[in-house]
Design brief:
The structure holds 2 protein chains of 2 kinds. Chain A is of the alpha+beta class. Chain A has one domain (3-78): Cell Cycle, Chain A, CATH 3.30.1070. In chain A, 47% of the residues lie in helices and 19% in strands. Chain A contains 3 helices and 2 strands; from the N terminus they run αααββ. Chain A is elongated, with a radius of gyration of 23 Å. Chain B is of the alpha/beta class. Chain B has one domain (3-268): P-loop containing nucleotide triphosphate hydrolases (Rossmann fold). Helix content of chain B is 40%, strand content 16%. Chain B has an 8-stranded mixed sheet, sandwiched between helices. The radius of gyration of chain B is 18 Å and the shape is globular. Classes of the chains: A alpha+beta, B alpha/beta. The A-B interface holds A 13-16, 18-19, 21-23, 25-26, 29-30, 33 and B 146-147, 150-151, 154-155, 158, 188, 190-195, 198, 201-202.
Chain lengths: 85, 271
């Protein structure tokens, strides 16, 4: 440990950086591992079907799977553009 | 009742085979009739670590295909009377391990009166690793205090919780144990290495043991002697503790604290 770092306070130890990074990435991977792989494909196909009838932006369709106790809820959220008179 | 224990990790090179060899030897030293099976088809190494590589005639895949029976294929360990090694096939494709085939061999071994069957898993999350954990009652997760190893261990825990028979049949979950290997108390104390407490906190499974980083492990593998037989070494004692805790004894963790050398020690050296 150099004199300077003693005076100006120690740099964060690498082990604690490792721990923080691991906690973040593992929390994310645990959450996503339960989601089935077909969600992105489902989202794309929904966009394609709905676009036949209404003009929507791909971002306006959101598909997500949520877990509530023993149930899984597939939530499809479609924001339709405002109707012009 | 036979208990099936998988030794797994996700990542390679963290000490699965070293741990499988020491752990199964430790169980046998405690009087348990034990078998240890190498699931790493194509990359067999347990035989070398156990020191029985020249006595391999038949292997796991031969038994699955009915080309040899278990009594022909099981190799009696040279250190322990009630320990037997079932080597992996070196030449076959890894798909030679079918779920039905593995199940039948394990069942036949249970009928032979084994107390414990230790399954030494290959690295990765592919077929061989899944076969090794499918029938497990308990799992020993071998992890190095290092980011990629911890992440891969979490991944293999997820697979254990979804693909094991116990999980698929909705039975009581596979009992999980953490063994932290290649641990350096000094580096952990200095904040350069994840501590065993950090690893446990991230993976959220109970610690069965901490094995210190040691040159003894290489010396043991050089001569084909499981590390638990390296008398007087910290590694051997740490593995003895692992086995004792696994069998229900309470033992405090050893070789995890670092004491700064005092002035005299620094002046006069010594270990």
């Amino acid at each position: 440990m150099s004199l300077l770092s003693l005076i100006f306070g120690q740099k964060q130890k690498t082990a604690s950086i490792a721990k923080e990074r691991l906690q973040l990435i593992i929390a994310r991977e645990r959450g996503s591992s339960s989601a089935p792989d077909f969600l992105p494909a489902l989202q794309q196909e929904l966009v394609a079907v709905i676009s036949k009838y209404v003009r929507v932006n791909p971002e306006d369709i959101k598909v997500q799977l949520e877990k509530q106790d023993n149930y899984e809820v597939l939530e499809v959220n479609i924001v339709l553009p405002e109707q012009r008179p | 009742m036979t208990r099936i224990v998988v030794v797994t990790s996700g990542k390679g090179g963290v000490g699965k085979t070293t741990t499988s060899a020491a752990f199964s030897s430790g169980l046998a030293l405690r009087g348990k009739k034990t078998a240890v099976i190498d699931f790493d088809v194509g990359l067999r190494n347990l035989d070398l670590i156990m020191g029985c590589e020249r006595r391999v005639v038949y292997d796991f895949v031969n038994v699955i295909h009915g080309e040899a029976n278990l009594t022909q294929a099981l190799i009696k360990d040279k250190h322990c009377d009630n320990l037997f090694v079932l080597p992996a096939s070196q030449t076959r494709d890894k798909d030679a391990l079918t779920e039905e085939g593995v199940e039948k061999v394990l069942k036949d071994m249970a009928d032979m009166g084994f107390d414990y069957i230790v399954c030494d898993s290959p690295a990765g999350i592919e077929h061989g690793a899944v076969m090794a954990l499918t029938f497990a009652d308990e799992a020993v997760i071998v992890t190095n205090p290092e980011v990629s190893s911890v992440r891969d261990s979490d991944r293999i825990l997820g697979i254990l919780q979804s693909k094991s028979r116990r999980a698929r049949e909705g039975r009581e979950a596979v009992k999980e144990h953490l063994v932290v290997t290649r641990y350096s108390p000094k580096r952990a104390a200095e904040g350069e290495m994840l501590s065993h407490g950090d690893v446990q906190e991230i993976l959220r499974i109970p610690v069965l043991g901490v094995i210190p980083e040691s040159e003894i492990v290489l010396q043991a593998s050089n001569q084909g002697t499981p590390a638990i037989h390296m008398e007087g070494s910290d590694v051997a004692q740490a593995y003895e503790d692992v086995v004792a805790r696994f069998l229900g004894e309470e033992r405090p963790l050893r070789f995890v604290d670092y004491e700064k050398p005092g002035l005299l020690k620094r002046l006069f050296g010594g270990k």
